[in-house]
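Hey,

The postdoc asked me to send both predictions to you directly instead of through the lab channel. I've kept everything plain text so nothing gets mangled by the mail client. Protein one:
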Amino acid sequence: MYVSKSSETPKYYDPEIETMDREQLEELQLKRLKWQVKRCYEFSEFYRERFDNIGLDPEDIKSLDDITKIPPVTKEELRQEQIAHPPFGRYVVAPQKDWRELHPSTGTTGVPVNTIWTEHDVENITQWTVRTMWNCGVRPGDIVQNGFSYGLWVAGMSCHYAAKAMGCFVLPIGASMAERQVDYLISPGSTVLLSTPSFALYIAERMSQRGIRPKDIPLKIGMHGGEAGAEVPPTRHKIETRLGIDAYDYFGLAEIGPTCASECEEKAGIHWVEDHLLVEIINPETKKRCNPGEVGVLVLTHLTKEATPMLRYWTNDLARLTTEKCGCGRTHARCEGGILGRADDMIIYKGENFYPAQVEKVIRSFDELGDEFRIRITTDEKTGIDVITVVAEYKTKEIDNEEFKNKVKRAFREELQVTPGLELVEFGTLERTMFKAKRVEDQRAKAS
């Protein structure tokens, strides 16, 4: 860790790496990429078969651009590999004697995909997680209330390790017990909250119900990941005003690293740990790299992971990338606006495409509405046409009228280019979540 000679808190955790010249950073990436590709080919039948099938040799990777010669790997391919070669597939590169921890994906979209950490992986992930937390202003001595899930799902563990390594006091409560979360914000008085955006809003709701005001607690920082929301302006505003904090976007995924990108004080996009990861944005149709600023699918490659490295992992998350130096002085690439949505979450309605995060932006821009919402998809029995209805909660019965509904529908039209139906229900009707919120309820199978 960088220690300032002055009494001021250091701005960067590792200034040599975080402010490294892009040319030097890319030289480091290439060196590590060549090492990773060679060992994957030598020690993994899974990767060796993929290379041999297209006639690719590890020595063909001579530049960072050459990584595009390697075919992307999808989660479904990893699932099928595990089924064919249980329990962990053949993409494990490190020998079993070096294995230390097992961390599967959440399994929210199918069978969990197993990943393994060696001791060196644990150390690397801990250190880069410290850096991502430092980006958001977390410092030694903070009381970190860890509301990410613990156990086999990995974000809670990595943040726990990092907070300890940084010299923080950790409250490992996990994604549960909303009332206890509020209790700990009061005593011992957490200064940092880690959670999904939905859970943060739920905690704020319970605080309000107990008559606890933001000024009554010492909380100052929120790091929110696991779902879209923290970079949706109305959602960020609600979290910040209701908890009295600065709210930052936080991103990770089990197959790559539970916590591998976060915002800084500029709130100008999530910074990647590019000394450990190679980041690409790929056009999902052409499979070509997008130009800076263009939206495409996020594809990630491990540069230092030992046990289960991913070469060009197709995340299915949509993002845009810039390598322009941030106002904070960091040089690592950023995804401006964070993760914009998931390709498989895209909803096609009346010829237009939109994402749940856009619906969230509209719903949470109205103070008259609650924070929870659902997007219900059904089929009209007579016409066979899909029908989309947004279900939201009203705070007072008086707003359940056509005039207010039309106001919301106009906002939908402006944001989505289409106008879904709107159903308002009593406040508290929709289930609150302490984990990843499931916004889309596809009832078309039932309707048919």
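Protein two:
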Amino acid sequence: MFPRPLPILLIAALLPACQLRSPAPAPADGAGGLPAMRTLPVEDPAAGAVSAEARRLIADLLFEGLQALDSDRLLTPEHNNAYDHFHEVLRLQPDNPIARQGMQDIVERYLELALESARRGNFTGAERMLGRAQIIDAAHAGIGRTREAVAAERNSGDLFYPLDERALRGRGDAVRASLAEIAAEARRRDAFVLIIAPDDELARWIYSVMRESLPGHRLRGNIEIAGDTLIRLRLPQS
């Protein structure tokens, strides 16, 4: 007995199901279909990844850069300064946060040195420090503020007296006479005396000589330890 033929309506109903199970032809290159799917690797290396050897070099450079920063070797000596070390790190790894912060710290240290120079009447040195800060980051917000502060020191009208450290340590009559003259000027102008010297002992000796030259007068002043040797008479504000 031959099998009974399927009804025409049942055949028509099965045809769509057969078509759904048939694989669709792959789109040609450049056709507008969905892109072919791919499986991502378990570890997809980042574009900025560095080798183990480079990481060791970066660590060494960062250490040297921080050491140089602490020693105020900011732009000098050549090839052994904070800027060169941090710059090399950023060449190898542009997003390194320690090197980026190190560059900002160099700028801020130069701004501090500019203010210190201005307070001692060394305005040429202050401008030089500002120039070095600008070399590293001309857009740094602190440069403009520091330049204004240096200008205010320059226009203060205060009197600056650079001193010969060797003569001071000799404790001779000539240097005592010079200190007495400065003290007399401080009394005449009612000025506040700022004594800057390399060590506390020398600064206190300068102050004692000035004070003894003005018996009965209270000499107002303060001392600051720094590499320079000078006296600044801060004049009262009019």
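Summary for protein two, as requested: The radius of gyration is 38 Å.

Thanks,
C.
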